[in-house]
Write the structure tokens for this entry.
Amino acid sequence: MKTIKGNITIFLACAITCAFVFAVSAEASLCNDPNAMTGFTGRTSFDIMISEADVYYAVYAPDTYPGKDLTGGSEYIYAYQIINSPHANVAIDFFSVGISSGVVIDNIYTDNTYGSGVDPLLSNIFAQSAWFIFADQSLNSREWSKVLIFTSVLSPTMGFGTISGGGASGMAALPTPSMSPVPEPATIALLLPAILIFKPNRREISQAK
């Protein structure tokens, strides 16, 4: 009887430890990072079929990112990390962030400063999006990516990101470079519900203000 109780105790301790390690590693400090720009750090959930994945994100003003900065501190750092849910039944194989026409991105790479994870097989800028392909290195349940980064001289606004897996995809709001000035956090809060439904053009945004 003592042996059974002892085994149960050990099992529960291991389970709690694993859950704690997963949670700490997965958050990777991007969510609510005090180094990031106000209003541009947080978490977005993506629905993929009957599965769910989270993306932790943060945007850093020039010379404020504490990790690997290929610009030497001269550009904005757009950082994202994908966390596949412990309950996920779909592996993630693709992630992209929409880029507006005319916006220039200078670097795209990965960083493990905020915790190591799965490295994408390929990353590039294509068809008005910054994309990261995992393919054979798919993110399975309880796995997370390295921090996925691109840089731009342009400041952020809220746009869209896409995650795909299992032949399905989901879309949700994520920060992206903008040709316009940085909006105030209060404006972001007012616009976010509409952003989740559709992508407004600049005329609609100016009317909302």
About this structure: The longest helix spans residues 2-27. The helical segments are 2-27, 185-195, 202-208.
